[in-house]
Design goal:
With about 220 residues, the chain is an alpha/beta fold. Helix content is about 30%, strand content about 20%. It has a single domain, classed as P-loop containing nucleotide triphosphate hydrolases (Rossmann fold), CATH 3.40.50.300. The longest helix is centred in the middle third of the chain and has 14 residues, at about 75-90.
Amino acid sequence: MPRNLSLMINSLPKRVIEALEKEKITSLRPAQEKAIKAGLLERKNLLICTPTASGKTVIAEIAFNNNKKSIYVVPLIALANEKYKSFKKKYPDLKIALSIGDFDRSDPFLAEYDIIVCTAEKLDSLMRHKVNWINEIDCVVIDEIHLLNDVSRGPTLEVLITILKRMPKIQIIGLSATIGNPKELAEWLNAELVTDTWRPVKLHKGVYYKGMVEYVEDK
């Protein structure tokens, strides 16, 4: 292992360390370090509110590999497919399932999988079917958790999280780049709040008009 590898990485699950090494990542991003310090590996509930591309998905992956059975909840089928393919590639020794659509099925085969990627509506359907393996879930990651405020998806997501909160065994991790009231949401989740402003590429604000961009910094 490279000498300049962050010491905090050594505390991560073996699969995560190997995945980071394959991608030649030698240090953790600020949000990831803060999440570990906030109790990620102690299975505490966390609300991660950091910019896009700041490393939130890796935080979820650390949680997956620190638990036996996990669910990754996304708002869109396209995003579910994307995350499923990514996790399958990075962790080939884990049994990863994609469960979307067909809300009339209980999908009993999911009992055999380590990680299940699904939409909130599908997970809501599975829980309504009272599938036995739900009680085996150790961790639930909710991507784009700010959609609690969405008129169409918000109610289902809120009911879903309310049910999950009553299951003391489950570690709940919420991810978002755009939460307007992070402190209130973290309190409702009984979660530690992790915030950070670091992003891999500086964000510039400007107006595009007739093929030109006029940046705010120039004024």
